Amino acid sequence: MSYYFLTDYFDGIIDRTQNKETLFGKWAYPVADKLLLFVIIYSLYFQNVIFWKPLILPIIIPEILIIIIGLIPIFCGKKIIVKPIIWVRLRMVFYFFAIIWFLIGNYMITNILFIIGIVFAFIYVVSYLMRVFTEH
């Protein structure tokens, strides 16, 4: 499971060290980020359905909102690609550690880490929405 995160991590390192950002990469990165999260959650869901049921919507809703908000500039004719901000990284760090604790079997710590990650995800949604409407 963690190799998904490692590929995302090393992709980011390559982009930053070789300065190879592209317009497609700026668009595809957030989409790939969400797909990565969906695949991991989906694959873990069946290991403990009772644990995941209350967490699925709070985890998925901010991700769907980000995708929808990301489409706003396209429909408005703007060429704005909002770069990732600290809330994105914090969200994924907490989700990553939550998944590790889930695999270890400590559901209490997993829950706490996911809740913190979800809070960062909703902060990210608000921040992203404000940036989409204020950037020119």
Give structural notes.
- The protein is built from five helices and no strands.
- It has 136 residues and is mainly alpha-helical.
- It has one domain.
- It starts with a helix and ends with a helix.
- The model has no long low-confidence stretch (mean pLDDT 79).
Hey, roughly how much beta strand do the residues contain? under 5%
- Report the count of strand segments: 0
Largest sheet data: none
Helix fraction by DSSP (H/I, runs of at least 4): over 70%
Gyration radius, in Å: 16 Å
Structural class designation: mainly alpha
List segments where confidence is low: pLDDT < 50 over at least 5 consecutive residues.
none
The number of distinct structural domains comes to 1
Order of helices and strands: HHHHH
* Distance between the ends: 39 Å
Rough outline: globular
Q: What is the residue-averaged pLDDT?
A: 79
Count of helices?
5
Task: Describe the secondary-structure layout.
Elements: H1 2-18, H2 23-45, H3 49-75, H4 86-104, H5 107-134
Question: Characteristics of this structure?
Answer:
mainly alpha; 84% helix; 136 residues
Concise structural overview:
The chain is mostly helical. Helix content is 84%, strand content 0%. The mean pLDDT is 79.
